[in-house]
Write a structure and sequence with these properties.
about 150 residues, mainly alpha, 3 helices, elongated
Amino acid sequence: MELSQKALAMLFLGGIPVGAVLHLIYALTDLGALPEGLCKRLICNAKDFIFMLVAGIAAIITVYYVNKGEFRYLIVVGIAVGYVLSHVALGKFVIGARNTLLHLIIVPLSRAWSITFGRLAGKIRARSLHKRTQVRAKILLLLASNGFEN
C-alpha cells in the first residue's frame, strides 16, 4: 500500500507523544535514590521488565490506532524520537520533581520511624558501644601486661 508524504508524516508524528509519555513514566518510576544491594537490583529489574511490557503494548496500540494495524518502521522511529526529545527537554525537571516527591514522602516516614524506634535503637547502640569499650580495655590490659605501652 502506497502512502503519501502527509500520511507518512502523520505516522511519524503519531509516535512522538507515545515516546514522550513512555519517558515520563520511566523517569518518574526510576529508583536511583535507593541504596545499592540485592533488593534494589531485584526491584529495578522487575520495574524494567514491566516497563518493557508496557512500552511494547503501547507500541502495538499505537501501530493499531495510527495505521489501522499495518506496521511501519516510521511509527517506531517516532516513538524513539519522542522518548529522546522528552528526555532532553524535560529530563532534569522530571527528575527534580521525582526527587522532591520522594523527599516529601520519605522524610516524614523516616521521622516517624525514628520517633517510634529511636529509643530501642539508642539502647542497642549504647549496649554495643559499651561492649566495644570493654573489649578495647581488655586488649589494652593484655598489651600493658606484656610490656607494650599505649
